[in-house]
Amino acid sequence: MVGRLRTVSVAVLSACLTWSCGGNQNMFNPQGPPARSIASLGWFLLGLLGAVYLLVLIALAMALLRRRHDSDMSPAATARITRNVTIATGLTALTLVALAVASVAADRGLNSPSGPGAITVDVIGHQWWWDFQYRDVSPSDFVTSPNELHIPVGVPVVLKAQSRDVIHSFWVPNLHGKRDLIPGVITNTWIQADNPGVYRGQCAEFCGHQHAHMAFTVVAEPMDKFQEWIQHQRQPAIEPSQGPAGDQARRGRDVFMQSPCVTCHTIRGTDAGSHVGPELTHVSSRLTLAAGTLPNTRGHLAGWISNAQSVKPGSRMPAVSLPADDLQNVIVYLRSLR
């Protein structure tokens, strides 16, 4: 029975360690210079403190199992104990120095990139979603990408982060450590992805009811693909095409403009210009809905529009009551906004 419990315990521990170190939200799978520094420090701390813990357990076991002798109170024994305590104290001091040196070494370069940033992105935290804003030399080049941060591979990206309501924390474990967003304060940080991929980010500071559903996606792609993406994002919403699908999309646009949706969202190229909620100009091109809560599919979009509170209670997205035909038309219209 004891052997079986031991086997089960080892299996559970192994599974937990494997799960915690896997996936695309993992500090021990670094994909950029800052993340590598943090991961190296993490492995060093685990190794060193694991060794200290093992030595303490061995010393404790030896003390518990050792039999008491009459000679333990002799001057020679006292001198030996004093020597051992002195050595242990010295090793403890050296361990603390090693930890301090490793921490300082890992911290170098975390706050500012080693080279010039290819782009600068404003990171805006809301309850409970993210807005990533790309600014260029002219107002017409302004791009906003809710809950989806696109970056070019191999170059540092400077982030200027701030919160619109409460304290949030920007964290992409594969690319950098956590950085708090404090209302009224602009926080500077940077990330860099050395390999193309899709990485998950998360708010790492408790910020209310839906804190756990305040995620975002970082899409790292080659520079030419990034330039194509940002040029496309600068374009206004396309006009619905000709044909039955286009007619349905036009009806959906008319319903959108006459519904409560228009009071919260922007669709560039239309009369919708509110900034209460995320911009929807290219909503169909995004990977997720509701800050990483749902995959961006037709069915999830319908559920989110018709009853957002059942998906993300407490969010500022109200339930929009539309007749079935109007809802389907709005979905067709939004799905056309790529």
Task: Please give a structural write-up.
It is a single chain. By secondary structure, the protein is an alpha+beta fold. The protein has helices at residues 2-20, 33-65, 75-107, 223-233, 244-258, 298-306, 308-311, 324-335; strands spanning 119-126, 129-134, 143-146, 148-152, 157-163, 168-171, 179-181, 187-191, 197-203, 215-221, 288-289, 294-295. Helix 2 (33-65) runs antiparallel to helix 3 (75-107), helix 5 packs across helix 8 and helix 6 (298-306) packs across helix 8 (324-335). The model is unreliable at 8-23 (pLDDT under 50).
Give a concise summary.
Helix content is 40%, strand content 18%. It is of the alpha+beta class and 338 residues long. It has 3 domains: 24-107; 119-233, Immunoglobulin-like, CATH 2.60.40; 244-335, Cupredoxins -  blue copper proteins (Immunoglobulin-like).
Keywords summarizing the entry:
single chain, 338 residues, alpha+beta, Immunoglobulin-like, 5-stranded mixed β-sheet, 8 helices, 40% helix, elongated
Q: What series of H and E elements makes up the topology?
A: HHHEEEEEEEEEEHHEEHHH
Assign an overall shape: elongated
Task: Tell me, rounded to a whole number, the average pLDDT.
Answer: 86
Q: Report the top-level CATH class of the largest domain.
A: Mainly Beta
Task: Please name the fourth-level CATH homologous superfamily of the largest domain.
Answer: Cupredoxins -  blue copper proteins
